[in-house]
Amino acid sequence: MCHLILLRLSYSNHKILIISIILFFDRHWLFIYPVHGGSQNAWLTNYTENILSKLIPNDEIIVRGVLVEPNFYIDLRINKDNIPFHLKSTQTMMIFNSKYKATWLSEIKLTPNPLVVNTTFMMNILIDQDESFNISFDEHIFFKYEKRESLDSVKQINIYGNITLKSVKIIHSYREKDNSMKTLIIGIAITIVLLILVGMVAFYILRRHCMHSQSNNSSEKYHDVTINSLGSHRSKTTDNSNATQATNSSTIS
């Protein structure tokens, strides 16, 4: 079981520290946040990641975490005065907005809030062909937020609020295609190399077989020649012997 204990230390009626103690089984985590002024919030998470490649259609942002308290925010920022995508989660609703030239535009409020406190969630932000945002929670489509400002110059994603953030993943669609093409090329190259190796092995075996066959044929020919030579030699020897016997017979006569 997970327990969250918030202790506020005050001095002269002003909050100076917020201590958060999270107990999980036999372990605990201690967080201390300074408070500069009574109106400033102290969040469990304040995460910022630079977006190195511009966002284009079919790109996707996946956020996984646990909602500790209802309030948290997600911003896609160009700079502090221009925020094309702003999501705010409250206890009762989800609020979407954009900030353009330091001015907030009209809010879009949706109820009820699909997130549940102390529950793990997965949020997907998929950029559509018209650069609008398709938002889903736990693979259930929730809302489509229409484009209000170009995404070409978005440089950061900022996630802050009372959540325990597990992971943030930015998936660029063109990189996935490039990876697929690279995988295909590597597969073709490996196949060609294997075919060449198999061909070389087959050629080597065939050559050895041919050389062995030629060697056997040469041995057989040499054997035949040797036998023929021996036969001829024996015939000549027999003829000479017969001639000698005939000569001796005529001499005796």
UniProtKB/TrEMBL annotation:
Residues 231-253 are annotated as: Disordered. InterPro entries: ConA-like_dom_sf, Galectin-like, Galectin_CRD. The chain crosses the membrane at residues 184-206. GO terms for molecular function: carbohydrate binding. Coiled coil: none annotated. Residues 47-171 form the Galectin domain. The keyword Transmembrane helix applies. Pfam families: Gal-bind_lectin (PF00337). Keywords: Lectin, Membrane, Transmembrane, Transmembrane helix. This is Galectin. It comes from Rotaria socialis.
